[in-house]
Amino acid sequence: MTKQREPLSALAGRTVDTYERQATRYDAERGKSLFERPWLDRFSSLLPPGGSVLDAGCGTGDPIAHDLARRGLRVTGVDAAQAMIALARQKHPGGDWRQADMRTLDLGTVFDGVIAWDSFFHLTGDEQRATLPRLAGHLKPRGALMLTVGPEAGEVVGAVGGAPVFHASLSPDDYRAVLTGLGLAVIDFVPEDPDCNGHSVLLAQRT
Question: Which Pfam families is this protein grouped with (predicted)?
Answer without folding.
Answer: Methyltransf_25 (PF13649)
